Amino acid sequence: MRPATLLEERSQIDRRGFLRVSAGAAGGLLVSLYIDLPAFALEGNQAQPPQVYPPDAFVHITPDGKILITVNRLEFGQGVQTALPMILADEMDADWSQVIAELAPAADVYKDPLYGIQMVGGSGSIAHSFEQYRELGAKTRAMLIAAAADRWHVSPDQCRTENSVVYGPGNRSARYAELAKDAARKPVPDKARLKTPSEFRLVGQKVRRLDSRPKCDGSQKFGLDLDLPGMKIAVVAHPPVFGGRVKSLDDKDARAIDGVREVFEIPLAKGSGVAVVADRFWTAKQARDRLQIDWDLSGIEHPDSSQLWNRYKELVRTSGNVAVSRGDEKALERISPSNRFVAEYEFPYLAHTPMEPLNATVRFNGDRGEAWVPSQFQTMDQMAIAEVLGLRPEQVTFHTEFAGGGFGRRATIDSHVAREAAVIAKRLRGTPVKLVWTREDDVRGGYYRPMHAHRVEIGISRDGMPAAWRHVVVGQSIVAGTPFAERLIKNGVDALTVEGAADTSYNISNFHVSAHNPTVNVPVLWWRSVGNTHTAFVMETLIDELATRAKVDPIIYRRRLLKPDAKKLRSALDLMDEKSASWRNKLPKGHALGISCHECFGTAVACAVDVSIENKRPKIHRATIAVNCGLAVNPLTVESQFQAGVGFGVTQLMTNGAITFKDGRVEQRNFDGYTPPYIADAPVNVDVHIVPSTDAPTGCGEPPVPVISPAVVNALAKLTGKRYRSLPLASL
Amino acid sequence: MLSNSRFSIRIPLVILIATGTWIALAASVAIDSRESKKPNGHGNRADGLAAWQKVYSVLTSPRCINCHTATNYPQQGDDRHRHFAHVMRGPEGKGVPGLNCISCHQSENADSTGVPGGPNWHLAPLSMRWQDANDRPLPSAAVCRAITDRSRNENMDGQALLKHHEEAALVLWAWRPGLRPDGSMRTLPPLSHAEFVAATRNWVEAGMPCPPPK
Amino acid sequence: MATYQLNVNGQRKQVNVDPSTPLLWVLREELKMTGTKYGCGISACGACTVHLDGIATRSCVVPVSLVGNRSIVTIEGISSDPVGRAVQDAWVDKDVVQCGYCQSGQIMSAVALLKATPKPTETNIEESMGGNLCRCATYVRIREAINTASRQLK
Q: Which residues of B touch A678 (CB under 8 A)?
């Protein structure tokens, strides 16, 4: 829905505006930030947010009154392209009907203020940019008032704003569009007054998404839809085992297809593959199918699921590196065996499979590069492309395209997809190349949620509460060997392996969590809610089991066991209790109730589900979800995130919900072998309730995911009498 | 089929034996109410049953039985798993609006994309199911009864069944089932089409005998 | 390579492509109509759904050589149909989309459902939409929007 001319006009103005402001302020600060680029990784709060916020990097008012707001995040479904502009527009007192949102290209000024790189992840978009966008809006407003006050020779505090108009004393008024040029010449104030919550007009309201209509009429362009003059399409043949290399290549048949341009070997993150470049996707794919490649698969581990399970099951019976050790390690032994039990859990590799297959488009012109990527990691991807092309990052113009989902898959630390595209573009200098991963490439291409084994030994005290808890987790580290390692790996434990367990809000005095992070030749990555995907399942099913043993209601049991200061969780539990009271004790025959709660990324969630068994599968008739996410910037988005996020969470329960290996090769090919939830698999009715709060907003992207699977199997336990400790769920 | 306990036929049989074996056969056929047609040729019962087993082996092979389900879904693959994407039978065996069989299956195989096709691709009606509700193939006796029961088989007699096996487009498809998405050929039925037709003919000419239920 | 005359959203289009090319890629790359999406290539997800002579069809598995002179309607053209418009409006009203990538296919399937069954039951909805994958899992709102559109189309 962006008129092309508006964009061109804007980018010209932007360039001038950008330079003008930065020159006036801290000189070369913005440019120098590129050089600073630490493998940044999140070194706590050492990340330097840019100290100059030229608002026109974020907001541009056109002569006809349109307000272009630039969003420093990828929009991949979470609704940030609406929510962040809402925040800015509210503080700015802009006319919401005139707001157009755009996704920012890669630039220092768009970095996440906390993490210091431009990215989406950790459910941090609103949490980290809330104050930032408020400030931007407030400062812009202040500059507009300053311009009006100047024009009218009055004092700024004699002016007020409403709906893109500045009003002055004696019926004076001026539209923002009229004032914009003058306002841009005003100095950016150091501080500007922020609204009090009661003054919000948009924040806290249910506001419909700005990108709905284009996504319903086919006009929304995603990365895969990009079309450029002279563009070629590339696909890459990847080795069947990670790290394999091309030994020999016969491309005769491939090249014989009309429209095939180039076939050549390329280096990959590990090993090598073969790139096929053609005029059209179908041509490239057919040509790739005809390649005869002899792979060298020697010298690399050939992962095999049954071997891995044997290895993991052995490891999980030994103590690992300590993540947390609280109380008396020997307490467990002093509890009589009849009050102890052991539970072992298994979680498979999971693929993300966002709806839009992975892609990246790159053009290399010798001294400049340009890239179009639906990326969750713009800074990293831009740097990687620049490195491949032999350029500095600022020589690569990096456009953020809309993404058809991500769930973490588009935030790869090694930027492997962007690198593949850049390598090919470098060879085809001058020609834009769109690299496309097919769905098969995606399902088989690695970067999975790691497989995990858990072993928990619990000693129960006389009151039915867990007195001692010894927990071992086995799973590959996601960040070992990457720039993120320093911050996230402590005492040999990847924090992402144990999050959700080690930091539990349950008050267990003798609590010991340790982990093994084995090395396996399978690339792994964060999958929406990361460690919580498996730890919450373990915690919430064990708590349920304990409650059942103690013959205590699962909600009451949790209230008893939670730490007193677990305020968000308690509030979510209470609200869920209230909102499910009307149905949860009146379930029809063959239905059962399941309860769970979990806090992650600062947001607490409690869940009640109504489940029956249909066709040997769980049928989730209803879920009542209560959320404490602090201030809900857009309650409509929050509701959507939770209604849908629990549906996403069901991915873990699906019959074909595992990536498995045999002799080094992934056994699944596509959605026929690795099957995410369809409409019949997802909850039918989901009602979401938000705890009223004016606390700082916390994330909603990932928190919905961990609660649904344990709630469902807790319900199943009532129906079948069995406890389910191995995912995915087999036929019931 | 001539149950040992049918003493009531013993006397007429004794009379008939004197008049020739084929009359006895006719009588035995007439007495068994499940027989649908008089034999119109040679072939003894044992040969007919052997021929039937051959026919049965084809009918219960994946290329055929996957669309003769007892459930509200088709199957696919040699392991006969439930068809992906929650594809449903629908009221007429043609799927449901939005997700018809012909939403994907065209009038011919699409080898470039791995989707099989044939004219009017659809499920056999439930009356022609050859499996039970747990997706297990029915035993030989049950399938034989099912396909010879004219109230369930669209009123086909032996000749019509033979013609169906010989000529029907979706039957013929089983021997040209096309490529899978991974480029490999789909498995053929255990007999060639010619063998299947020959076995059908032999069976029909033997009077379409069915094995006794176990 | 072969030449095909296609009837797309009421317009005649001529393309010159390999006969095995799926209709999906003809639409996207020859005709530059990218509203119809590639999600899996094996008809398992429905992102590629168009209408051929009014039947919801998964264009990723239909080679262009098998289209013939059937009329093709894509997401770009469905708003000329009152049912299409009602569905799109309901989708916007109910804030269905998240990433949006699957929604062209969802809408085309929903339109096929409502044209055949103007007052669908929950079972009808679940069955007809049963093969359309949404990784964001916006299914709850998809159900609501179909019910809304159905009520609009009295």
A: 85-86
